[in-house]
Amino acid sequence: MEMQNMTLITVPETAKLLGLGKTFTYELIEQNQIPVVRLGKRVMVPINYLNLYIETLVEWPKGFNPMKAEVCNTSIPLAQEKKVGC
Q: Each residue of 20-32: b (16+ CB within 10 Å) or e?
C-alpha cells in the first residue's frame, strides 16, 4: 500500500466510527482484530485496514452470494431508494 493513500485515525475516532466505546476498541486492538500503526506512544488505525476489518464482519442473508448480486443504481442513497430490485 502506498504511503500517500494511508490515512490514519485515532482510536477514539475509530471507536466513534464503529459505534463502540474506546475501551472495547482498545480491547479489539490488543486482540489483533483491528490493525494499528504505533507512532511512539500514539496508536493510530489505518482507515483502509479498518474498512477491510468491517467487511469481515458483514453477515449476508442465508443463500445470498454477494459475488453474484446485481448492482443497482448506486447514485441514490439507500435511505431514499424505494424500489425493490433493479
A: eeeeebbebbeee
